[in-house]
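Here is a tokenized protein:
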Amino acid sequence: MTAANGKSLSVGIAGLGAIGTAVARRLAQDVPGLRLAAVSARDAARAATRLKALGIDAPVVPLPALAERAEIVVEALPAQHFRAVAEPVIDAGRIFMPLSVGALLANSDLVDRAVAAGARIIVPTGALIGLDAVRAAAEGTIETVRMISRKPPAGLAGAPYLVEHGISLDRLNGPLKVFEGTAREGAKGFPANVNVAAALALAGIGPDRTRLEIWADPACERNTHTIEVEADSARFRMTIENVPSENPRTGRITALSVVACLRGLVAPLRVGT
């Protein structure tokens, strides 16, 4: 299946880190109905060298140019660059696929902006599990949503919340709960670590009612997320253990989730809510 005009949908990628590179590789391997149109990165020369080394034929362009070249733009940059990616894509009426979902909570005006421009914001499942069930439960009444994240200390190092509160993870010899609060607070304090909590909040009862715990655990070899939901339609508890990518803050499944989400836009058969 392709776009309505019979052509493949063009995809742009903002950011060529662990996730962006993995998505670019998949698209370059010929995903039916999709084609890689362009990428953008903070270091354009380095990005061009990397693409060439990987045998990927795609131009490296400035961020605003992605909206001109691509019908779908995947955002995979540090959160501080979020609006620089989002604004031109949304204003052009394109499909915006953010991975810095926590930044979306702090820039909720972009949703109204998308309505005015005829754009769409599609959040992939990412490194989480069970968003279909949460979205379904949200059609009824959800009473509580709680998420517990456990990560190796290296995956949390440098988080603004830890720096602000003087929490050191050096020589940690056992599990340490480093945060407990709302998903909104967690997304602000750990912008590179808990985009999953922001996605969970958007799927369910919102960032101020979704509760979050974050643990640093030196015994963890995988980034682990457990969600617990109590609703009038169901009670469920699910856990996912993600194999880290080359970036310890990100699981390998995140990039695969983006590819699966992109496939869902053009596939003749789609399974899931």
